């Protein structure tokens, strides 16, 4: 019986695929996510992503501010089944101001799909996100999107990806023209063409498969396109990297696919190839060494906390990535940081706003649990027999700061609760000037749009209106020396001493010159860009 349990555990974990979709804003990431869900039968109709006039919105964008702006502001988690695989998609915020939440989401993924706009190529945000993937050596798959619009030369796009991101590529398929003349793709492994005609973008596309030697090829894709394709393939076969699955798994080679998410060109072939090439859940580093996903003991870590997903319930959901074994809803687990045995309350899987209470989940899955306020980002939960901590998630240094207080002095309690809860989610960081109360706080964010989201949520979820004052600081450093009395530091007039809510001292600077000034005048002072306490 035990052997059966083990083989069923192994089977369930092997069919899991957990990946994040990353891109610059507007590259079409949310549309691609929706098409995946459409193929998996998880939704019946794709929403208009920027549906300003229509009542439909992309299913993965749930917060009101996202609907107004047509962007993904928070990371969504979606699960669906496709051809025997159980797929967990982490749809990350594409907006440039949400790199911190995106960073944490990438910590929960085993691979990443990088969506690139065929007319724009590699954009600024893509570089930042790519660096995070490269740090973890996770497999990166590239989907060059919007081929149904006029696009750049595919060879130039490939060269730019290699030069800008420093990773060799392997085109798995090759586009036949672009824009109005886009005729489909050539599959290099199968050595045939998949020619497409659009069907309105709602369902599977009509496709015709043809061999390169097929006499009707000229009629199918046009004589000029046929000549160009034969030239391109000869050049590709002579010049491109060899395909090496081991290099893909180590994040050292990125398979590239061309297509159009909006019209469904190439989405299903991409999904199928991606599932063949990606590994099942990967081992994770911990204080007890590598944790094997197939170990029968349950373990997970917290990578995201979201308050008030359902306004009617005033709830707070903690998202956990399961790293090993199987989760049962009746099981007791150990919350390592709180050193407390507990049962995870209302375990659920979430698709946008739709929630489903679950009885079980496996390594690779993402679950949401009701959180009365005990979890923090990076926390570990595991079977009570074992006690270890997964590697911590570093805190990004914020670059923009505001002094914030509530308009109505009678709402101090709500102000404290709101700022503290939103900070615990990691969307903002809050600081205090030492020796002052919580009458006002300094809010730090990675990107300025987070100020708008913070203000919007304080008003809508906590009924608190804010008075905000911009501060001239753009650099923050944690003071690493535990033996220094911060009051004795010699600092320039435009440097501010603050504390975070764990009691750590930090310095805010308006320029790099001020950082150098402080280091020169305070011998032995050690400053760091990360909160080292987070980097276990």
Give a topology summary.
Layout (H helix, E strand, L loop, with lengths): L1 H13 L1 E8 L5 H11 L24 H6 L6 E7 L2 E7 L7 H9 L3 E7 L6 H13 L3 E6 L8 H12 L3 E3 L1 E4 L7 E4 L4 E6 L8 E6 L5 H5 L1 H17 L5 H5 L4 E5 L8 H11 L21 E9 L8 E9 L1 E3 L3 E4 L4 E4 L1 E7 L2 E4 L2 E3 L3 E5 L9 E3 L17 E7 L5 H14 L3 E4 L7 E6 L3 H14 L3 E5 L4 E5 L15 E6 L4 E5 L2 H10 L5 E2 L8
Parallel strand pairs: 1-3, 1-4, 4-5, 5-11, 6-11
Antiparallel strand pairs: 2-3, 7-8, 8-9, 9-10, 12-13, 12-21, 13-20, 14-19, 15-16, 15-21, 17-18, 17-20, 22-24, 22-25, 23-24, 23-27, 26-28, 26-29, 27-28
Helix pairs in contact: 4-5, 11-12
Structure report:
- This protein has 536 residues and is α+β, with helices and mostly antiparallel strands.
- The chain folds into 3 domains: 23-72 and 113-277, Rossmann fold (3-Layer(aba) Sandwich), CATH 3.40.50.300; 299-382, Elongation Factor Tu (Ef-tu), domain 3, CATH 2.40.30.10; 400-534, Alpha-Beta Plaits.
- Helix content is 26%, strand content 29%.
- The chain has 13 helices and 29 strands.
- The strands form 5 sheets. It has an 8-stranded antiparallel beta sheet. An 8-stranded antiparallel beta sheet has the order 25-22-24-23-27-28-26-29. A 7-stranded mixed beta sheet has the order 2-3-1-4-5-11-6, sandwiched between helices.
- Strand 8 and strand 9 (192-197) form a beta hairpin.
- Helix 4 packs parallel to helix 5 (124-136) and helix 11 crosses helix 12 (449-462).
- The longest helix has 17 residues, at 223-239.
- It is globular.
- The protein starts with a helix and ends in an 8-residue tail after the last strand.
- Residues 46-56, 69-75 and 532-536 have low confidence and may be disordered.
């Amino acid at each position: 019986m035990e052997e059966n349990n083990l083989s069923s555990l192994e089977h369930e974990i092997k069919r899991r695929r957990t990946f994040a979709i990353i891109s610059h804003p507007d590259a079409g990431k949310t549309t691609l996510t929706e098409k995946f869900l459409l193929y998996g039968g998880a939704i019946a109709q794709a929403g208009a992503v920027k549906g300003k006039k229509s009542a439909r919105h992309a299913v993965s964008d749930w917060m009101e501010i996202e609907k107004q702006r047509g962007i993904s502001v928070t990371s969504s988690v979606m699960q669906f089944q496709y051809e025997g695989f159980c797929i967990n998609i982490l749809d990350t915020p594409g907006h440039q101001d949400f790199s911190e939440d995106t960073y944490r989401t990438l910590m929960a993924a085993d691979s990443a799909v990088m969506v690139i706009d065929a007319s724009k190529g590699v954009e600024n945000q893509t570089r930042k996100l790519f660096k995070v993937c490269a740090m973890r050596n996770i497999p990166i798959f590239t989907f060059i999107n919007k081929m149904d619009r006029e696009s750049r030369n595919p060879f130039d796009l490939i060269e730019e990806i290699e030069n800008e991101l420093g990773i060799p590529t392997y085109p798995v398929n090759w586009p036949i023209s672009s824009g109005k003349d886009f005729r489909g793709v050539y599959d290099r492994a199968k050595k045939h063409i998949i020619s497409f005609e659009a069907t309105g973008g709602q369902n599977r596309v009509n496709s015709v498969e043809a061999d390169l030697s097929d006499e009707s090829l000229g009629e199918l894709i046009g004589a000029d396109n046929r000549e160009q394709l034969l030239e391109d393939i000869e050049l590709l076969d002579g010049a491109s990297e060899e395909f090496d699955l081991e290099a893909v798994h180590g994040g050292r080679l990125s398979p590239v696919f061309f297509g159009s998410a909006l019209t469904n060109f190439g989405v299903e072939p991409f999904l199928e190839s991606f599932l063949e090439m990606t590994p099942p859940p990967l081992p994770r580093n911990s204080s007890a060494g590598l944790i094997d996903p197939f170990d029968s003991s349950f373990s997970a870590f917290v990578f995201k906390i979201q308050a008030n997903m359902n306004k009617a319930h005033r709830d707070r959901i903690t998202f956990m990535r399961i790293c090993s074994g199987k989760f049962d809803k009746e099981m007791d687990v150990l919350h390592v940081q709180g050193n407390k045995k507990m049962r995870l309350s209302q375990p659920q899987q979430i698709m946008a706003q739709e929630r489903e209470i679950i009885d079980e989940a496996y390594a690779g899955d993402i679950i949401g649990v009701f959180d009365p306020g005990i979890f923090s980002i990076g926390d570990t939960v595991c079977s009570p027999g074992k006690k270890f901590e997964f590697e911590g998630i570093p805190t990004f240094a914020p670059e923009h700061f505001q002094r914030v207080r509530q308009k109505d002095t009678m709402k101090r309690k709500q102000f404290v609760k709101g700022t503290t809860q939103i900070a615990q989610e990691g969307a903002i960081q809050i600081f205090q000037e030492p020796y002052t109360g919580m009458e006002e706080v300094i809010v730090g964010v990675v990107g300025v749009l987070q100020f708008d989201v913070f203000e919007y949520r304080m008003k809508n979820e906590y009924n608190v209106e804010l008075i905000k004052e911009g501060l001239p600081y753009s650099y923050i450093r944690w003071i690493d020396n535990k033996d220094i009395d911060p009051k004795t530091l010699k600092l320039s007039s435009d440097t501010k001493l603050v504390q975070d809510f764990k009691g750590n001292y930090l310095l805010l600077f308006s320029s790099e010159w001020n950082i150098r000034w402080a280091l020169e005048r305070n011998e032995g002072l050690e400053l760091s860009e990360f909160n080292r306490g987070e980097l276990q």
